[in-house]
Write a structure and sequence with these properties.
The protein has 252 residues and is α/β, with parallel strands linked by helices. The protein has one domain: TIM Barrel, CATH 3.20.20. The chain is 36% helix and 29% strand. It contains eleven helices and twelve strands. The chain has helices at residues 32-41, 54-57, 63-71, 86-94, 104-108, 111-120, 153-162, 184-193, 207-216, 227-230, 236-245, and strands at residues 5-13, 16-21, 24-30, 47-51, 77-80, 99-102, 125-134, 137-142, 147-152, 167-172, 198-201, 220-225. Strands 1-4-5-6-7-10-11-12 form an eight-stranded parallel beta barrel, surrounded by six helices. Helix 1 (32-41) runs parallel beside helix 3. The chain is globular and about 45 Å long.
């Protein structure tokens, strides 16, 4: 049986890891290099590194911090933020990323996913989707959750996967930082729409939230979180031991 992955997320702004609630009210946490090194040595299966204001600021991702982070990480590293062209994919991969996450750049140019998948392979292309309920519908947002695209999120995910995205990260804006559990309804809708790995993001507050996620939605491949790991509210190894107790496969 394939093990479920636990993935800390490093949201980086101005060279510091930050965390907020529902994509707002950001506060600094620590150095991304130090945190990445810690997680690499303490049970994380992968790491996600987002330069969260690169797209909204209209600039490129911090390559110097990324290179330093990649040198200290010995687990798969997914990187996103300001990915708008194949040249951005190439630059990030050369800095040491294993996979590249694209969000706003794909919204501006939907062909980017297909072009990147053709050049680097589906397994390298991660479609990250910031989703929020609008009038009861799942709506896709861009620029770090700041801009409503008007697009139906589920249809967007299906399109992205058909174009070659090998993995989907579902970021629920409604539950981000609230710590009341993952958005199971939203995740179920995405799992029903695609057959590639789905990563759940937004809402984890305790170990039981991950147990509920994997038990109720066994098609979800991974759980991603930030503040509960950064502030020591959940220890990854403790989480994995509890997963195994509940017959959820995990890598110890």
């Amino acid at each position: 049986m394939i093990t479920k992955r636990i993935i800390p997320c490093l949201d980086v702004r101005d060279g510091k890891v930050v965390k907020g609630v529902q994509f707002a009210g950001l506060r600094e946490v620590d150095s991304p290099v130090r945190l990445a090194e810690y997680y690499s040595q303490n049970g994380a299966d992968e790491l996600v590194f987002y330069d969260i204001t690169a797209s909204s600021d209209g600039r490129k991702l911090f390559t110097d911090i990324l290179c330093e982070t990649a040198k200290n990480v010995f687990i798969p590293l997914t990187v996103g933020g300001g990915i708008n062209t194949l040249a951005d994919f190439d630059r990030v991969l050369k800095c040491g990323a294993d996979k590249v996450s694209v969000n706003s750049g794909a919204i501006r140019n939907p062909d980017l996913i297909a072009e990147a998948a053709k050049r680097y392979g589906d397994q390298c292309v991660v479609l990250s989707c910031d989703i929020k309920r609008v009038n009861g519908n799942f709506r896709l947002f861009a620029k770090g959750g700041r801009e409503d695209t008007g697009l139906d999120a589920i249809e967007w995910v299906k399109r992205g996967v058909s174009n070659g995205a090998g993995e989907v990260v579902v970021n629920s804006i409604d539950t981000d930082g609230v710590k009341q559990g993952f958005d199971l309804a939203m995740l179920a809708a995405v799992c029903d729409a695609v057959s590639v790995p789905v990563i759940a993001s937004g809402g984890a507050g305790k170990i039981e939230d991950f147990i509920a996620l994997f038990q109720r939605l066994p098609r979800v491949d991974a759980g991603l979180a930030a503040s509960i790991f950064h502030f020591g509210e959940v220890n990854i190894n403790d989480l994995k031991r509890e997963m195994i107790k509940n017959q959820i496969p995990a890598r110890i």
